[in-house]
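Notes on consecutive records. When two proteins share a document, each keeps its own sequence and its own token line. Never mix them. Below: protein one.
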Amino acid sequence: MFYEPKNGHGLSHNPFNAIVTPRPIGWISTRDAQGIDNLAPYSFFNAVAYVPPQVMFASTASKADQIGTKDSVANIRETGVFCVNIVEYAMRDAMNATSATLGKEVDEFAHAGLDKAACETIACSRVALAPAALECKVTQILTLEGDENYAVFGEVVGVHMRDDCLVDGRFDITTYHPLSRLGYRDYTVIRDLFTLSRPDDT
């Protein structure tokens, strides 16, 4: 099968998200100018540079109580900061609860029953028990092709790691099992690892 997206795919469900998988989930916490915390998951998320460390996430929809975007992007525009919380399998239901479309006055931490902690370098809350959290200062917000599509880039200025996830000097993902997004409403959990040496490794 071949299709051009501009002409549609003719299937009962859009295959694009199922093709580009698995995708890490950035559980983005922000705070608006009035001090209300927000927490929402984004699967268009990744690390994009080592030095300085940088990450990005993309928002592709809007809400009735925001102008052309969602709470996360609106809050970041106001404050210039955000935090990426890493999602473990044990927090899958809480993560899913924060994906609900709620009014901008609603604190998703409270809605999902999650404990929050203060970030160290930015004025923002983070998920207290997350395996890791990345405190970020925005470097740019890009407008992408299409309606309501924005890519947010940030420099990581602070890193939290849960102590039990550090094993022999390494951040060990098998201690918490990262959750990843697949297509449609499907997810997967990472439990098995293998190692490949690059051809130029010495």
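Protein two starts on the next line and is unrelated to protein one.
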Amino acid sequence: MIDRLAQHLDAAAMEIRTVPQLTIDQPDLSLDDAYAIQRAVVDCRIERGATRMGMKMGLTSLAKMAQVGVHEPIYGYLTSDMMLADGGTMVRTSYGHPRAEPEIAFLIGRDLQGTMTEAEALDAVIGVMPAIEVIDSRFSDFKFKLEDVVADNASSCRFVIGASATPLAELESRDLSLGNLGMILEVDGEVVQTGSSAAILEHPARSLTTLLKMLAERGEGLHPGDIVLAGAATPAVHLQPGQHVRVRVDGLGSAEMFVD
């Protein structure tokens, strides 16, 4: 079942089409099943030549978790075929219903695994970057249950990170707190969303330690060079051809992309 459903979702992504929720035909699909499907979906990409680049967190808003009745976020994988260069162009017709979110990204400097404090996790962070994540569900009308979205690699699609990573010590030297950085999402030069890094599980470092705990439950961890998208600071914005999208984060600079 796991491989069959993974190939089903992978084919939907490759053929740019949407499919009904998995839980309609598989009402007993468990969260463990969903993460197994997710890993198999990522393996399909790796078999085509993509490489693992890190992880992304989803449902990092406490209000969103309460809304969908869960007590912790979800995660997905980042692969090289998802990465878009800063200032690069994404072809809108290659996706079903893509939406952009402003995020903060961590660059990991050494192996991390297991439960640890926020300070211990941040000690392994080389730097922090502004990021844009583009999400795009494989499910019709962007509607799904928790198990569906986990199986679908947490709606991962594309991501952009800023050109340089800012060390945490540099933020502190400028009296800037990682836990409360102002974040702005612009489309065609107009501000469409504003928020703070505090919206990401109340502090992005908490998102990082939560990810490590969840990965450890499945015998996994983070590795040197991994990128971790900590989660969205604002609601997502629908993307249309011809748009220029930019996120600006206090102390970190900006990241941008174009939609063709």
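For the record: The domain at 2-259 is CATH 3.90.850.10 (Fumarylacetoacetate hydrolase; domain 2).
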